[in-house]
Write a structure and sequence with these properties.
The chain is of the alpha+beta class. The chain contains nine helices and 17 strands. α1 (16-27) packs parallel to α6 (320-341). The longest helix is centred in the last third of the chain and has 28 residues, at 346-373. Keywords: Oxidoreductase.
Length: 413
Amino acid sequence: MTARVDHEAIVVGAGPSGRFLASELARQGIDVLLVERRSAPAEAGVKPPPGGRAIGLHPPALAALEPSGATELLLALAARVERGLAYDGPRRLAVLDFARPGRRFPFAVSVPQSATEHAVSLDAPEPSFDAEVRSVAPYPDRVVLEIVRNEQEQELTARAVVLATGAPGRVLALPYARLATREYPDRFLMSDSAEAFDRRGDDRTAVIALDPRGVLESFPLAGGGRRFVAGFGAGPDDVGGAGLEDSGNGRPGHADRASERLRRAVAERSGDAASVPAFEAVSAFRIRRALLDRMRLDAGGRLFAIGDAAHEISPIGGQGMNLGLLDAAGLAPILAARLRLDADQDRELVRWERQRLASARTAARIAGLNTALGRPRGRLEHTALRASIGTTMRTPLSRTAAKAYTMGFDRAR
């Protein structure tokens, strides 16, 4: 007797990677349900909560999104980042040119995450919101999910389930995989400003200031303005009264002090106090690394984890969302062939998993190096670092740094 199956595929999590995967499966004729534990978005015109939102898309992700038409939509909105500049005070240490010969997209882009989610989900089913998945259980012929929706418990089944939940839903994968984590001591403040600019770079340039007090990063925003991220090194959760918490949001009542702390850091580290705005919405965050040892969570190849559910990478460098989109781009055709044709895709799934885990580990190492370079340090140590970077960036290694910054070492095919 054949067991009941409600859907061919269920994707858990309606973030960018989950929406993109659901869209790609639907485009290939797969019956897919997209479930999301959060409530439906607020009505149009309601300002979303500030901070913590991914804005960067790198060349491998742009290439992966192109067949769906998403890249064309995003490029019409995005700010193109064609180079990176590294400074120590007024002294320029390095120029990173992102235009490499043969590259389809010789730039990264800055675009709001909401625009990315819209672009990648044009063919996706409407998410089923307020649906919290309590457990997943793979069997040889199906996966069973226990879901609470509208305060009602129910059971759903599918031939395949993909966890694209982000970090909060990683617990669903833990019965089937080992997790390695690392908490970094570093603390950061971040804010966007529509009026801000950085005199050291134009609207196509990312700027990194290596300062003895900590790193300052500055990125152009779509539509004008810039995002600033300032590092403050290790310390208590309260950086300058900012109320740093794991959630990435400052505690109520600390907004003014967080804004002033960030404004002062930007003024001191950029050397341009006159043009620094008063930041209205400041996010505080810490960083961490979490890597599952597998993304194919069962021997039968019916339960998977992608994106932050499988590999959470430090946001310094902005590669987390890109990794999830590339996970989805690689998995979608393999899973669709398996479901639509009932084809044996074991070899392809093994190759996909190896490539994506290797890419996540590479991204984690690069993010760890970026974080270490941006920490506060004494004057003598900082002088030595400055000399080392200045010398290194005058060699062909500068091309390697530009490649790393734009995810050129990702193994996506």
